[in-house]
# Entry
Amino acid sequence: MTTIGVDFDVPLHAYSRGWADGTIYDEPTPGGFDALRQLMADHAVFVFTARDTYQTALWLKGHGFDVQLDAAGSDGIWPKFWNTRDRILVTDRKLPAVAYIDDRGIRWTSWPQALADLETSLLLFDRDEQLRALRAAQDPFISSEQYLQALHDARRCAELERELEAAKFEIRHLRAGESDQPAPEGVAPTPEQWIHWWNRATPDERTTMVNQIFASAATAATCFEMNHRWSLERLDRLTNALRILDQVPSIAARAMFITEAHENLGLGASFETVLAYAAARVILTETTPSASAPSESSR
Ligand SMILES: [Mg+2]
# Structure
């Protein structure tokens, strides 16, 4: 057995003039009783209301329903559940149910969604109240059709307002970080000025700019790679020369090789060339018996 809770005002009682003086004054909502009977065929149903439950029960009874007024039992304890089919419990308490049918309910799936839906509901509530007041004041000059049309328009209007708010939020998000101060002629724009320009550029301008960025990135990557490769090669050459010179046991002898290289190459030679020359001389001295290491006597 499942239990369903049904709100009284609007789903069952047409409520066309709102709360009014608190008495039940209106006709049944079109289709409300058929739906109620349909629910009662499969579920235990209670009707919940902020109105006087006795008046509400009388109204439903007057329309042919078997009703029971929510009340404490002879033991003074209020029932915690409603599980009776074919009879409606009328209550102002929130009893357990698998679902509540209510024109003012907000379905909760997450707080951001529930709060956003509440915003819309509040807008709708204001408009519904205004329309009811209008109808109460001008009745019978506004037909039901006109009223329903106006209500529909008001709901559409609330939806559009919500969409507009979402769009404004998107635009604010998109324009975050912009600066609307234009960059002076010939001066590169700051990132903030650049974002400002980008957000207003035509599709063609954007495509052109992206192509330029891609081309620049490709050039930059090539420059980096070339320079990187050259530096690595140079480092390799220096490391090799130093490793060879390191094999010369005495510091004084190493200094001699370097001095000799300097003297032969001249002062304009690069450090790399001097080391390479000195290393070559070390190898020659070690592998060729006739070649001799530079020394004080050979100068
Ligand atoms: Mg209601």
Summary: Residues 67 and 88 are 5 Å apart (CA to CA).
